[in-house]
Design brief:
CATH class of the largest domain: Alpha Beta
Largest sheet: 8 strands, parallel
Radius of gyration: 29 Å
Strand content: 15-25%
CATH topology of the largest domain: Rossmann fold
Number of domains: 4
Distance between the termini: 67 Å
Strand order of the largest sheet: 10-9-11-8-12-17-7-18
Mean pLDDT: 91
Structural class: alpha/beta
CATH superfamily of the largest domain: P-loop containing nucleotide triphosphate hydrolases
Number of strands: 24
Number of helices: 27
Helix content: 40-55%
């Protein structure tokens, strides 16, 4: 009995035929237009007897494998004496640069479609046509071949034969993976309180194919409680893979640690971590062009060997592992990790790779999604991140720069950049000196100007004619494309925000409510599990993250006793206008607290400005009131907004227990130290939270408030209170991380005594 490999035509032929180099300029242009207007324009010229978007499928036996291949050909033309398969490809480049009679990967796709149609309908021969379309000029260029069914059959068999080693390795790994999952027990001796309940709910959600919104307290072991049941569901045949989605490097590390720990217990699973391109790039300058990067030059000629090698010898592929194999095979580590993601059983990555329409995984077909679960860690972060993903902006300055750079070099590029710069100048004149404007209508004129600029930029990029602008043309092109794409999403959930200053103008298509778009981007996946210690109030997060009526919620109580945590509320105003007066009382309170119980503390503030002001007051007070060399003479650390990853690591490594001395870290709420940081035992014995975390009053937040008021909801809560209190809960959650931890939590603000804010605190923090 043959093992069945289900695969799309495109995936199969791209694996076998893709060659050449990564080039951000041309790759961007070609992928932007796949299956868009150029295709539709050609299809509109078809006759009555012609068909478009024809679904075809076939089974192809190779050795002990059966390839179940399917796809959709652009056109099937009723030409005489042979039917013609038409494959349409669009490009922003010059059609005269197409060498020979077209590209092998495109022929392979078209010939495959022809074979599948001929086999299903008993055709003795087929005519195959490649139609290349220039997106700007609408010029077309065609290449035609004829082939007998026997020739087509031999051709596709050879392609399948070249893919077979990879398919056999995947099959062999899948059998070993499933066997290891069957033998995998929960990797700890016992479940913590609430852990079994969470794991069971995750498994049931995957089984039933629904969303789960789980509020599970810090320290319960959320990572293992979500990954373990997903892996078990994989072993039961429900899943082919899962994505573990995070917002921060710290939570990514927790997922890797869980997978490595289960590997020690016998799990054989291919897991890949995707690191941002800017962080993992081997070059000093991120410039994805073959002339500037040896890892981009010839990438596609080497990538299949690199993928086979790493999958043969590794399981949990973290950043260092990927970097080592990328250097060995001379391939771009970022693109390498993306290619590995399509083969992996588990992918640890940022939210963007699923939800952001600009960079989400493009090669996932529907059948793959049906067997994939999304595990969304620290899901409270996804609300504001989604607003960023679905928003887009253009600013005046880059277009003025491009206008100057392209003058005399590229006429159309110069003209279209100047038109956008002129648009912004006119906007500034119309504003009558107002610093900002808001509109509810899409600026159609600017969208049209952006489309014209994008077309001109494509021509300049394809010709390699970017002038002396370096990467600016490509960056401006991407900004224009993102603006165009976002304009197609624009509806009553959006607002246009215009910010005007002396030196620049910024126009933003601002997504106020991302729930519908999150739902659309997540469509097709078997199950979504959203989990966080601070998914509270859950009704707000379900509303913002696009929950449906059939979706589940779960609230797991804290596994720790109230005696472990001493909560103190200090009634002091930290409102903006009272902050100057509050600096000294807060500094005194910190010194008193550390004098009573020396040890390691974090003090969290709502902003850098407030934090720095209290820090200066504290340091002055400490100098004359705390005797040098005493236990409460604390070493003081201060978070900076521009800290590198290495500096952040050193900051946290300073928090060690057993020194007998005190340590005080000043940090901001919502920052890198207030989430995903695990300082167990006496590495941290106290947390001071100053304020209720409300975002700074501003135009964009007020837009949110007004929008949700108009929806019949509490706009102030949606825009300010709920996001602010979430930061408070996250900061306070750094404290109790295990059954043996003890600590003091100080909440400084008189609003904590008000019923509305009290109700948003965890039960163990109240009273």
């Amino acid at each position: 009995m043959n093992d069945t490999v289900t695969i799309s035509v495109r995936h199969l032929v791209e694996y076998v035929f893709l060659s050449g180099s990564i080039d951000a300029r041309l790759n961007a242009i070609d992928t932007m237009h796949e299956g868009t207007r150029a295709h539709q324009r050609v299809q509109r010229t078809y006759g009555e007897q012609d068909l478009k978007e024809v679904y075809v499928k076939a089974d192809i036996a190779v050795d002990d494998l059966l390839f179940a291949v399917d796809g959709r050909c652009d056109g099937l033309l009723g030409t005489e004496p042979l039917l013609t398969v038409d494959e349409i490809k669009s490009t922003g480049g010059d059609l005269e640069q197409i060498t020979g009679d077209g590209y092998p990967v495109h022929w392979a796709q078209a010939l495959f479609y022809a074979y599948m149609y001929a086999k299903e309908h008993g055709q003795a021969a087929m005519r195959v046509q490649l139609t290349y379309v220039q997106t700007e000029t609408e010029e077309e260029r065609r290449f035609v071949r004829e082939a007998s069914f026997t020739e087509l059959e031999q051709y596709v068999h050879e392609i399948a034969l070249r893919y077979a080693p990879y398919a056999q390795q995947r099959r062999k790994h899948e059998q070993a993976r499933n066997e290891s999952i069957r033998g995998l027990a929960f990797p700890f001796e016992t479940y913590r309180a609430g852990q079994r309940k969470l794991a069971g709910a995750v498994y049931k959600s995957i089984e039933e194919g629904v969303r789960l919104f789980a509020k599970a307290p810090t320290g319960i072991g959320k990572t293992i409680s979500t990954t373990f049941p997903a892996i078990k569901a994989m072993g039961a045949g429900m899943l082919q893979r899962f994505y573990y989605l995070t917002a921060r490097t710290t939570t990514r590390a927790a997922a890797e640690d869980a997978l490595l720990f289960m590997r020690e217990k016998g799990l054989n699973l291919h897991a890949v971590t995707i690191t941002a391109k800017e962080k993992i790039c081997f070059q000093e300058e991120v410039r994805c062009e073959k002339e500037h990067c040896p890892y981009a030059d010839g990438y596609y000629d080497r990538i299949n060997g690199a993928v086979l090698d790493i999958l043969e010898h590794e399981t949990v592929m973290t950043r260092p592992v990927i970097e080592a194999y990328a250097r060995k095979h001379l391939v771009c580590p970022f693109e390498f990790s993306l290619d590995l993601a399509y083969a992996a059983d588990a992918v640890v990555c940022d939210y963007n790779y699923i939800f952001d329409p600009r960079i989400s995984f493009k090669r996932q077909y529907a059948e793959m999604k049906k067997r994939t679960a999304l595990l969304v860690d620290e899901a409270h972060n996804l609300v504001d991140r989604a607003r960023e993903m679905f928003s887009a902006e253009l600013t005046k300055a880059p277009f003025l720069a491009m206008q100057r750079k392209l003058k005399g070099l590229h006429g159309e590029g110069y003209r279209t950049a100047k038109a956008i710069n002129d648009y912004f100048i006119a906007l500034r004149k119309q504003s009558d000196g107002a610093p900002h404007l808001t509109l509810r209508q899409l600026p159609e004129e600017l969208v049209a100007l952006a489309e014209a600029f994008a077309s001109a930029a494509e021509q300049a990029l394809a010709a390699g004619n970017s002038g002396s602008g370096g990467g600016l043309l490509l960056d401006t092109y991407f900004a224009a494309q993102n603006f165009i794409r976002t304009s197609k999403l624009f509806d009553d959930r959006y607002v246009v925000y215009i910010e005007l200053s002396k030196n620049d103008v910024r126009l933003k298509l601002y997504c106020l409510d991302p729930s519908l778009l999150l739902r659309q981007m997540g469509k097709g996946y078997r199950s979504h599990v959203y989990f966080s210690a601070t998914l509270s109030p859950v009704s707000y997060y379900m509303d913002m993250l696009g929950a449906g009526e059939d979706d589940y919620t779960l609230a797991v109580p804290s596994p720790f006793s109230k005696e472990q945590l001493d909560v103190v509320i200090k009634s002091l105003s930290t409102r903006y206008h009272d902050r100057d007066e509050s600096k000294l009382p807060i500094a005194k309170l910190i010194i008193e607290l550390m004098d009573k119980r020396p040890g390691n503390y974090f003090a969290f503030f709502p902003s850098y400005a407030y934090m720095n002001a209290v820090y200066e007051t504290y340091m002055e007070l400490k100098e004359w009131s705390v005797p040098a060399g005493t236990a409460s003479d604390a070493e003081v650390l201060l978070q900076r907004p521009d800290m590198s990853e290495e500096e952040r690591d050193r900051f946290l490594e300073t928090f060690q227990g057993g020194s007998g001395k005190s340590l005080l870290g000043f940090a901001v709420m919502g920052g890198v130290f207030s989430e995903g940081v695990d300082l167990a035992g006496d590495r941290l014995i106290g947390v001071i939270v100053v304020g209720v975390g409300l975002p700074q009053l501003g135009v964009e937040r007020n837009m949110l408030k007004d929008y949700f008021n108009g929806q019949g909801k509490s706009g102030y809560d949606y825009a300010y209170v709920f996001p602010g209190m979430n930061k408070v809960l996250q900061a306070g959650g750094r404290l109790i991380r295990s059954e043996t931890d003890r600590g003091t939590l100080v909440l400084i603000d008189d609003r904590y005594l008000q019923g509305h804010y009290q109700r948003l605190l965890p039960e163990e923090w109240r009273g």
